[in-house]
Amino acid sequence: MPHPHSILTFAIMSEIKSLNFIEEVIEADLQTGKYKSIVTRFPPEPNGYLHIGHAKSICLNFGLALEYGGYTNLRFDDTNPVTEETEYVDSIKEDVKWLGFEWKNELYASDYFDNLYQFAVELIRKGLAYVDDSTAEEIAEMKGTPTEAGKESSFRNRSVEENLDLFQRMKNGEYPDGSRTLRAKIDMTSPNMHLRDPLMYRIKHAHHHRTANTWCIYPMYDFAHGQSDSIEKVTHSICTLEFIPHRALYDWFIEKLDIFPSHQYEFGRLNLTYTVLSKRKLLQLVNDGYVSGWDDPRMPTISGVKRRGFTATALRDFCDRIGVQKRENLIDVSLLEFCVREHLNKISLRRMVVFDPLKIVITNYPLMNEEMLRGEDNPEDANSTHREVPFGRELYIEQEDFMENPPKKYFRLSPGNMVRLKNAYIIRCESVIKDDSGKISEVLCTYIPESKSGSDTSGLKVQGTLHWVSIAHAVSAEVRLYDRLFRVEDPNSEEGDFKNYINPDSLQVVRNVYAEPCVANAKFSERYQFLRKGYFCLDKESSEDKMIFNRTVTLKDAWVKEQKKG
RNA sequence: UGCCCGAUAGUAUAAUGGUAGUACGACAGAUUUUGGUUCUGUUUGUCGAGGUUCGAAUCCUCGUCGGGCAACCA
């Protein structure tokens, strides 16, 4: 008997959570007993890197299996040897794991080449497939157009025996590439172009990343995918909208072969504002040098966002929130940023780092003195650990945190005004020192000794709190600040080349920032919030003598908004 | 102008013939030793026209708009 608690939880959950259309189908299938449990698959072609569009599919396929107690196979759709490489297989496996999912079986469409060949022979025997000697051009010509019926090939009515013989000889390598194909005999007048005698096999004398030179004929996607699903007893085969017209063919092969009836369901692929998510376009960004590589932190690839500092938790949460539907969508990238911030806020260690230093001197702080102050690592954590932050007479604050003639609502440091230095004291600006050119070289302040953080008896209230770093103790680092790669909301729908809309300022490098000492102990596994600056993580290009941090995402900033209004 | 898919606030997503709700965004306020976080409030929506019905976002009809389909790619 189930624990009463879990029943309650389930009741509440099902009341709150609404089902997407695929979940509805699955629940119905489970309820009617059509399936006892479900099997899904994630079927990438190993010809490129995964991006966050794939993440949506991964979360869907693996998430469904987890939700309903089934399992998911990772199946590489490797039916085209000329585009596929083992390097991609490895990166795909790594990315799926990083996202936090485990596949039941690691499989390859190429594992089924023998089965598929037998299936083809079977269809030939049934008079449902034939070898066509037409050229690619002739086949395209005879295909007709969406508004115009196709014409039957003159090879369409070859005998079963001849087809069997020819197909075997195709397999044996007797014919050159492109000289013959195996086609399904369906209907050249079908309004669905995919049913006009689609190609099942083509000749390619090419090396395959797994089967090497065993084969010189390779099945087309349509002749491989459904049957692969069927062999694996995939119950719910989920793909994107553009495969809708393929479904009739998917079903046709399964029906004629009389094999396990897998079913295909289609959802709308992810589109993100200010982003492109097509392999072709991402490849161009890499090849044309707009980014440093597939894992450039500005790239929407899994490896890119991972290097940027996004967490798998945030990505999964994002995929959860965007939902699943049978319609086109363009998700606002601010939702992604929200998910990333929400997670990072909970786990990041707070650190103080000054990017653009302005020297301040605490004139009433004892000469040669210094002290260690305590700073919370994470105020979101009730049991937060602490680190020690050295304080001294000479400090850096940000240039932007001081103004000689401040505008209204400026809460920061200005002559005569007081601010708190985070984790330290309240200070007052007494005067400024300028160099010959009139530029402020340092700001002279006094501090209120009894205002020390944690034991403040001053009774003073100030509006601003600044981050700072002791000049004598500061450690150096480089930070890389990223902005969106495109300057228009939907680069895919703009006129002309999408590359015309690239944001020229998507990367800003600050070679030397001043960080509090404990930043020197930064770890790759940890996430940081540089106070008031954003979330950061260590970049892989960091070395022993040079730390490099990527800005994952900024903090929300009400002040910039305020300024824009003015 | 053949076939297929779709249309709910700015964006995304619920409501499955019975009060149009949620999240993000935006705006306003409270709290705050991060102009962060948190909390509260406000704003804005059923593509159009008919029909069925006591009652339609939901069902039907006709439009409109968007997307897809003519690779020996997946």
What is the strand content?
15-25%
Shape assignment: elongated
Low-pLDDT runs: 1-15
User: Helices and strands: which structural class?
Assistant: alpha/beta
Question: What topology emerges from the helices and strands here?
Answer:
Elements (H helix, E strand, L loop, with lengths): L3 H13 L4 H11 L7 E4 L9 H16 L3 E6 L9 H13 L7 E3 L4 H13 L3 E4 L3 H7 L17 H12 L9 E4 L14 E5 L13 E3 L1 H11 L4 E5 L6 H11 L5 E5 L11 H9 L14 H7 L3 H11 L10 H15 L1 E3 L1 E2 L2 E6 L7 E7 L9 E7 L1 E5 L19 E4 L4 E9 L5 E9 L16 E2 L2 E2 L4 E8 L24 E9 L12 E3 L3 E5 L9 E6 L4 H8 L1
Parallel strand pairs: 1-2, 2-3, 8-9, 10-23, 12-18, 16-19, 21-25
Antiparallel strand pairs: 4-5, 5-6, 6-7, 11-22, 12-15, 13-14, 15-20, 16-17, 17-18, 21-22, 23-24, 24-25
Helix pairs in contact: 3-12, 8-9, 12-13
The chain binds one RNA strand of 74 nucleotides through α6, β6, α8, α13 and β19.
Describe the structure.
By secondary structure, the chain is an alpha/beta fold. Helices cover 28% and strands 22% of the residues. The protein is built from 14 helices and 25 strands. It has helices at 4-16, 21-31, 52-67, 86-98, 113-125, 136-142, 160-171, 221-231, 247-257, 279-287, 302-308, 312-322, 333-347, 558-565, and strands spanning 39-42, 71-76, 106-108, 129-132, 181-184, 199-203, 217-219, 236-240, 263-267, 349-351, 353-354, 357-362, 370-376, 386-392, 394-398, 418-421, 426-434, 440-448, 465-466, 469-470, 475-482, 507-515, 528-530, 534-538, 548-553. The strands form six sheets. A seven-stranded mixed sheet has the order 10-23-24-25-21-22-11, covered by helices on one side. Strand 2 (71-76), helix 4 (86-98) and strand 3 (106-108) form a beta-alpha-beta unit. The N and C termini lie far apart (65 Å). It binds one RNA strand of 74 nucleotides through helix 6, strand 6, helix 8, helix 13 and strand 19.
